Amino acid sequence: MSDILLEVKDFNVILDGSPIISDLDFSLNEGEFLTILGPNGSGKTVLLRSLLGLVPHSGQLNWHRKPRIGYLPQGLNQMSVRDMPLTVKDFFSLKKLKSAEVTAILSLVGLENAVMNKKAGYLSGGEFQRMLVAWVLASQPNILFLDEPTAAVDIAGGETIYSLLKDIWKRQNLTILNVTHDLNIVYAHSTHVLCLSRFGHRCHGVPKEILTPDVLNGIYGADVKFYTHKGV
Amino acid sequence: MTSQLLLSLVSGIFIAGSAAYLGTLMLSRKMAVVAGPLGHLALPGAALAIVYGFSISLGAFPFVVLGILLIWLLEIRTRLAMEALTAIVFATGVATAFLFLPIDKAEAALVGDISKVGIYETLASVILGSAVVFTIKRSYSKIMLINIHEDVAKTEGINVKLYNLIYLSAIAIIVALGVDLVGGLMTAALVAIPAAAARNVSTTLGQFGAVSGLFGIISAAAGITVSAFTALPAGPLVILTSAAIFLVTVPLAKV
User: Fold this and answer.
1) Pair A89, A33: CB distance under 8 Å
2) What ipTM goes with this model?
3) Residue A116: closest CA among chain B residues belongs to which residue?
4) Whether the Cβ atoms of residue B226 and residue B232 lie closer than 8 Å to each other
5) Taking CA atoms, what residue in A is nearest to B30?
6) Quick one: which of A153, B136, B139, B150 has the fewest CB in 10 Å?
């Protein structure tokens, strides 16, 4: 059994006087791929940002081992830097990395060395996201916080990014905390799921064991069905 | 070349060069226009300096610091947009200045007067301009990452409050120095125009900073030199040279 990396107890977040997260308890083991699932407005991003210390919160947040965090936020995409004369090489130089290190980390995410001199703002959505994954991995994190990492790419590109992340997760023995509202991602990639809802319903565990139709209805507040093909 | 022209050139080049370099960070944070209202807030200080006969930059500096503190505090307290707060600060500065600024002496405060700069003011421009360039160069990658995504910068272990303080202090120094060169009405142009022109022709961050600084230096040198041989004021000539460079770069814009 894996060691506990993070323990969260009696966790509360109040923003502008409104409770966003109340009395949340869960733990995260080393090597887990935990997806925080829920509809819009359920507090997924707020939870992720408060675990990063970016949002005021109360309760216990116990790291059992010093985390080296890599963070892929929502909304950081090629359009964010399109106005700047910023090449991929420049983007990595913000971390003071040497060219050889950048080349090695880019190849890890399937990007050619030629991309180094391209403007980061003019990469495709998928290329930019791969570059960001490489940039985050360059700091050698032991835990990745991902907030809708495929929001700015199409379905095929999104699947490629998740396959890449899963591959890196296995190879580098990382722990991943991922936010999404996409049930497919949970079933295809996550070892565990933490559900949040606007109506107070919660669940935590192995997806195929706990995501029953009743639980999903409670989370989404509607009749949600999930179909799998045979053999999946 | 007269010694007065030399002092004006040295002073102008250091102010404009450092302002243009800092401007690349302000442009990437979409904050270039903020320097304008801060320059306007410097007007009461410039007015005091004119009335009591001391350096305009010295008079402007505490008022600019006050302006930055006001915007910073009001933004935290009200969460109003930066544009709204700078408009309030701008109006307050101009209104206060015109309460006691002698109108017949207003020109130096409004459009600057680098042609009468003394040795100590030149020395201050060289030292402070160099200090801003040195400090910003050392902090450039961290401030740029904060500009790109503040939360990512925080999770990468960057002390965002500290670097914002360094950045705002540099702006305060540049605006106070800029009032001497182009006056309180046009300080935004010192940071915004060379940086915008440099963005048009640069493909890398390194080029962006260097080219912007170079455009700032060329604008100051050309504007001050032309002013020395005509009866025209240096401040507006510096800005117009800068604007001409920008126009030349427009067809070359790399988009």
Assistant:
1) no
2) 0.88
3) B204
4) yes
5) A83
6) B150
Taking CA–CA distances from B24, the nearest residue in chain A reads A84
Nearest CA among B118, B113, B147, B133 for reference residue B25 = B147
Rounded-to-integer distance, Cα A129 and Cα B105, Å: 57
Extents of the domains making up chain B: 3-188
Dist CA A31 CA B158 (whole Å)? 27
Query: Which residues, in sequence order, are bridge partners of residue A62?
Result: A7
Instruction: Tell the residue number behind the tokens 């919160």, with chain if given.
Output: A57
Residue pair B242/B194 in contact by the 8 Å Cβ criterion: yes
Chain-chain contact of A85 with B208 (C-beta, under 8 angstroms): yes
Which candidate from B142, B199, B205 shows the least CB-CB separation from A90? B205
Nearest-neighbour CA in chain B from A20: distance (Å)? 20
Contact B154/A at CB under 8 A: yes
**What class does CATH assign to A1-68+144-149+176-232?**
alpha beta
B89 and B41 in contact (C-beta within 8 Å)?
Answer: yes
Report yes or no: B146 and B158 within 8 Å, Cβ to Cβ: yes
Both tokens of residue B181? Answer: 């060169």
Minimal-distance CA residue of chain B relative to A143: B155
Query: Going residue by residue through chain A (232 aa), what tens digit of pLDDT does each one get?
Result: 568 999 999 999 998 888 899 899 999 999 999 999 988 888 999 999 999 999 999 999 999 988 999 999 988 888 889 889 999 999 999 988 888 888 888 888 888 888 999 999 999 888 898 899 999 988 889 999 999 887 767 777 777 888 888 888 988 889 999 998 888 888 888 999 999 987 777 889 998 888 888 888 887 776 666 665 554 4
The single-letter DSSP state of residue A98 is -
B126, burial (CB in 10 Å: exposed 0-12, middle 13-18, buried 19+): middle
Chain A interface includes B145 (CB < 8 A): yes
The answer to whether B253 faces chain A, any CB pair under 8 Å, is no
* Residues A121-135: tens digit of each pLDDT: 999 888 898 899 999
C-beta separation of B39 from B179 below 8 A:
yes
Distance from CA of A121 to the nearest CA of B (A): 10
CA dist., res. B202 & res. A195, Å (int): 47
Stated as kind and residue range, the H or E segment containing B182 is helix B160-182
Token representation of residue B134: 């040195």
B149·A80 Cβ contact <8 A: yes
Query: How far is it, in rounded angstroms, from Cα B70 to Cα B65?
Result: 9
Query: B64: closest CA among B41, B83, B48?
Result: B41
